[in-house]
Specification:
- This protein is α+β, with helices and mostly antiparallel strands.
- The chain folds into two domains: 119 residues, Beta Polymerase, domain 2 (2-Layer Sandwich); 135 residues.
- The protein is 59% helix and 9% strand.
- The chain has a four-stranded mixed sheet with strand order 3-2-1-4, sandwiched between helices.
Length: 286
């Protein structure tokens, strides 16, 4: 099996730790699947840039010769093996995606974790670690598929309990830069996908969001700084979160609800609209 070196730029201590987690993932996948491993790719910020050791996940896609009802449990075993090695705290941030080449090419298949957003990221930006690159020819996910996947992610993530929790900026900040920046940038990235039909990357999405003149644009930009440097002024962070975090979520939820009503996805639209209404935002000058 051909190996390709895909080192992250600027090999400092944190970068080397991320590389080690990736190498351990390759080893664990080969131990679990043997010759069934067709290829392994990095995705996300490790692949297209912007990896921030303080907050980023380590996204890896494992492409197999075939999948079965047992594949999900085997993939869980790969993640556990890497976590048990515990070479770095980054081991806990490993996120695995999987499928066979049919899933990569068409998005079809029953036993996989490779939704439209993840599949497009793999096709456009995935960095081959081992195996053969057989990604093409492939059918690209449509913008509408990306939007529907984002809506489903929001329905799963932005629950009423979650939306209540993010009202408490002090507790959110106590959880560290990772929890704060994800709370800000998840809805910003979803809004970017809705507005452009493209995958929402952190920096691109935050810059776009700020350029739209939307309430919370300044907070989106501040989140980029916090991803890299951490939160160095907790009172200022709490002030900006109190001012605009709910507004970012409300804008995102309402925007998706409006779009989904327009394309006939009424069930999703009603629920997202209900959650947007439940935020009960004050006027910007209140």
């Amino acid at each position: 099996m051909t190996a390709i070196d895909t080192r992250i730029s600027q090999p400092d201590e944190d970068t080397l730790a991320a590389e080690q987690v990736v190498a351990e993932t390759v080893e664990a996948a080969r131990a679990a699947f043997g010759s069934g491993v067709e290829a392994i790719f990095t995705l996300g910020s490790l692949a297209h840039g912007g990896f921030a050791p303080l907050v980023s996940d380590i996204d890896v896609a494992i492409i197999l010769s075939s999948t079965s009802p047992a594949t999900g449990a085997q993939i869980d075993g790969v993640a556990r093996a890497v976590a048990e090695t515990a070479s770095s705290p980054l081991s806990e941030r490993l996120s695995l995606f999987w499928g066979d080449w049919r899933a990569v090419h068409t998005g079809e298949g029953e036993y996989l974790r490779l939704g439209p957003v993840d599949r497009l990221d793999l096709l456009e930006s995935g960095c081959l670690l081992v195996g053969s690159d057989l990604r093409e020819p492939s059918i690209r996910p449509s913008p509408e598929e990306l939007i529907l996947m984002s809506a489903d992610h929001m329905l799963g993530k932005f629950t009423l309990d979650y939306l209540e929790q993010i009202r408490d900026a002090e507790t959110l900040i106590a959880g560290g830069a990772r929890s704060v920046t994800k709370a800000i940038l998840f809805p910003v990235r979803f809004a970017y996908t809705l507005g452009t039909g493209r995958i929402g990357l952190n920096e691109t999405s935050a810059l776009w969001y700020a350029d739209q003149g939307l309430r919370g644009g300044g907070l989106a930009l501040r989140a980029l700084h916090w991803r890299r440097e951490g939160i160095d002024d907790a009172p200022l962070a709490q002030q900006t979160l109190d001012a605009d975090l709910l507004a970012i979520h409300a804008e995102c939820l309402a925007g998706f609800a409006e779009h989904l009503y327009a394309v006939g996805e009424t069930v999703r639209a009603v629920e997202l609209s209900r959650r947007a209404d439940g935020l009960r935002l004050p006027a910007p000058d209140a």
